[in-house]
Write the structure tokens for this entry.
Amino acid sequence: MAELPGTSRDVSMGDSDLDSGASDESGDSDLDAAQAHQTPLPDDIEDLYSDGEEDENRLEKVNLLISSFNSVMSNVYQPGKELSIDESIMLWRGRLYFRQYIKNKRHKYGLKIYSLCEPDGLCLKFTIYSGKGGELIGVGHGNKVVMYLMRHRLGVGHSLYMDNYYNSVPLAAELLRESTYCTGTLRADRKYLPREVTTAVLRTGETVARYAEGIAVGKWKDKRTVMYISTEFQNTMAVSNNRRGVPRQKPLAIVHYNAEMSGVDRHDQMMAYYPCEHKSLRWYKKVFVHILQRGMINAFRLYRKANPTSKKSLYDFRLNVIRALLPPKENLQLRPVQRNASRHVLSKITKQTNKTRVTRKRCRQCAKEGNETRTIYFCAQCEGEPGLCALACFDKWHA
């Protein structure tokens, strides 16, 4: 790893360099997070969307599914060193109290999902943001999300990569005490940041950093200024090739962040290849299908890890899973298809010219079941041309 001569200004910082007028929390309050990262609904609109169950568990209908998914992944797989945390949106435009709006996402409206993933897209754990009153709400929301997703995975030396929505100096210190490293981008308005870094004016290619208690806070100027934090890497310059294959020098923390941070995006990308989340009147039905999709992607990733030489695609893997879940063909009882000219067809009663309304017939199938229903459909091939309701009664009558 080569270092740019004369462009790196590394100076150790003591406790005096920190902003002493800050509290112990990360400063990631709900208001700050909303203003900088997303645009929530106004309070009056949230009250309109409220269903009067603010004190109840809004995820009660899907909590068992979420906990089962997380429990199974914890039992069947031991992750590698590199992990990443990010959020995604499950599309939902219906009426829902904790529906979110994030303008830079592919689906701007929907349920916000926090996920812990490996760099290849294997999802280890996730949770759904349920709005005010949830377990993760309050001052230090970003810290709470990270510590919840990393529960039972601290103290074993993981390297965690996060964006500036989560990273802060207090969070980095807390993770470091649990033998867990963190690296990622950082907001300039976070508390406890050294003023020498936040106020530094850099030219393109220059970098400046300060250190305290094993935490490095740095700034690097490329096309724009990027602030970052790391408890694993120092402010060392490394050579990295861009998308065009041109070598560029970047801070080592930025190089690793770019390489390891795309786990959640890669998982969402694979889910988008074969979408099966259709419109539904119930949000929890869509969450159920979404969790099934997550399980399918995880199963494919685990299969590839167990069979590294296999070249089976996700498409072929899905077909194999479907065939394995279906009963054997010899056990299928298929209804014979009528292919003769006398095949029964649902017909519609035509309106007579001398009448203002269409004459309706009594549905024979409904009458058999003890119901009184009038319909404009009938079967012209049956004796007496009985009236039959469309689809359901027609099929039952000819079964």
User: Anything to note?
Assistant: Residues 1-55 have pLDDT under 50 and may be disordered. The first strand starts at residue 8 and ends at 12. The chain has twelve helices and 16 strands. Residues 303 and 310 are 9 Å apart (CA to CA).
